[in-house]
Design goal:
The structure holds two protein chains of two kinds. Chain A has helices spanning 7-23, 26-34, 43-51, 70-83, 89-101, 105-116, 229-265, 277-306, 311-337, 348-360, 365-375; strands at 122-125, 140-144, 147-158, 165-171, 182-188, 194-200, 206-218, 222-223, 267-268, 271-272. Chain A is an alpha+beta fold. Chain B has helices at residues 3-20, 47-59, 77-90, 99-111, 114-125, 239-255, 266-274, 285-313, 321-344, 360-368, 378-389, and strands at 131-134, 150-153, 157-168, 175-181, 191-197, 203-207, 217-228, 232-233. Classes of the chains: A alpha+beta, B alpha+beta. At the A-B interface, helix 7, helix 8, helix 9 and helix 11 of A face helix 7, helix 8, helix 9 and helix 11 of B.
Amino acid sequence: MPMYWNEDQDMLADSARPFIAGNAPVSHMRALRDAGDSHGFSPDVWRQFAEMGFTGILAGEADDGLGLGHVEAGIVLEEIGRNLTPSPFLSTAVGAVTALNMAGDHIRQRWMPGIVAGESVAALAFEETTRHRPHRVAATATKSGNGFRLDGAKQFVAHGHVADVLLVTARSSGDESDRDGITLFAVPRDTDGVTADADRLADASMAARVMFDGVEVDGDAVVGEVGRGADVLDRVLGAVRTGAAAELVGVANGAADMTTAYLRERKQFGQIIGSFQALQHRAAHLYCEMEVARAAVLKAQQALDEGDPEAERHVHVAKAMAGNSAALAVQEAVQMHGGIGMTDEYDVGFYMKRQRVLAEMFGDADYHADRLARLSGY
Amino acid sequence: MAEAALDDFRRETRRWLEMNCPPEMRTPPKSADDVAWGGRRFEPSSQAQADWLRIMGERGWTVPDWPTEYGGGGLAPAEAKVLKQEMAALGCRTPLYSFGISMLGPALLKYGTEAQKKEHLPKIARGEIRWCQGYSEPNAGSDLASLATRAEDKGDHFLVNGQKVWTSYADKADMIFCLVRTDTSSKQGGISFLLFDMESPGVSTKPILLISGNSPFCETFFDDVKVPKENVVGEINKGWNVAKYLLGHEREMISGMGLRASEQSLPERALAHLGAEADGRLDDPMLRARIAAFEVRAAAFQAMSERFIDMLKAGKADPAQPSMMKYYGTELNKDRHELMMAAGGADALEWDSGRSHGGVAARSWLRTKANSIEGGTSEIQLNIIAKRILNLPGA
């Protein structure tokens, strides 16, 4: 597979770009925030995503999906990032669909149609600590009748308070940090004993702290095998880390495009400030970092789609590189805009906030550099 | 090309390489001197090295994607990529290092006359002629177009007078491709691109001792050197276009230095010199973190290089993209060698001991400092990116 988009992927980008910019631009996100929206996204826009086929990109044709891959999902995510569109796309159409593709027929058929139709939303309840430690699972799954009783607390669950289904890791055996003994469950949010309290984050998105207090689920709720949930979890993490990286590429490019446009028009000392070499070199350096990140993300997407045995490495590289380059992009963007970049009225600050949330989500650059080092044996 | 045909090509290529690549040529070079540069005065370091160059040259696989009529392999881009992958998989050495391949060849293919291509390209492909590059002058560095080496029109020939500097391996080269001034009334519009023999009367070279203790670069002097008129590439006074085109290829080549795997990776060197803790982590947490952060960027740049080559071959690359590759690749390579020195600790400081293989770590580290200067400085690359890609206004 050459390292650029093929014709079909170019066409998808050509339709996703104006669609998302037209229906959910930054002003849409600002309007939701200003209205004090606590849902976290617009269900109408989510249904429009379904009409465009986006929700089913990773779903198989048997589930009325498009049977496409992570490159295509990333094309949509890049536009979500560029427009700062509040959307459950990453948790639902990437994370949950990846899990459901590995699940038994019963559970897949229960949730997939609603997701593909844009009627249902899923949330990923993996985190128990303030830093990303997905295999550190203290929540318990205790055998109970034909099923399990779940107890524990999760945090940083995007869309957790409005999701129809929560994908939850819980420990059915082993110690807190063992990879074995983790089981993954698909739990309807309206199950007795589930409470989700949402908080607004810095970027105006909503994330919940979810409590599981004696939650009874039947055996059908298990995704994958009992005690082998880490196998599914790792696949889901590979997908959403790569997805978050693609969204970060969009965030970085959105901020950088605003900034170069500003450099071309703002005058000081009687000159366009973009003619100053001090700023030109910083903008050019940023461009390089972003292009390298884009390549790293495409590499990870293609590796996942091809089933490359090195895919895990490429995913760590992509998330770390995208996180760092986007951090540089938003910091340079605010600085080069000067005072106006500090105002709430101007959009560039939104990019900085979104970058910070996405960089933390599913592991920051340090986490992934550390994992890459472990994989390389040092 | 159809997948099946490409799979067949991959199988045949693997079999051919297994049969024809000498076992000694499937290990990394033992030192910087252990690579083949070809030329009239080439002294192979082993019979295997000489054989490997000859076998690959005959097949045109020193330049796999050049046309066969000019000594190339005539491979399609996808096939050339497969060949590269299969050589890497088997650990085959690059059979020939050559400025003819990486710089002059592409420029001749685009701007040369049929006679020039027929004369020079096959000899480059077979490693028979070693070329050097006459670009920089004492007063024309970053401002290359201010060059002053004069080529006077004497009817049937030019008379060349002047001085070049930083001429890589001028003392070992057979021929030079050289920028000369044929018109003093226009800066960029008075430059021509000339080819001539380094054995011509009036050419002399003087190696420059560098901070690495080595002398890869020379000062090159021209004193009434006669050059036939037919040795101009492109039109007279339009050499700047050829020069810029060639610079793009030079920048690509230099950016690749950041990727060139040395015998030991950075983590391997650190583990070997510093050791590991019980859980396998490098016994120096701060250095480990710095190495890990570096390895992320290096892997990402590897992906960028693959993408750049694919896009270049498909005609999708921005013309200024080599500047970006050159800038990023060379800065990365400098960072790598800073970390290599840290990873080597005091051992890496030895300058000429046998244990240090003649101070190869320290000398390589110092050599990389030229990467972001040669072929256009990092600052020049950033200027180009700012203007050509970001469309920022001139100062």
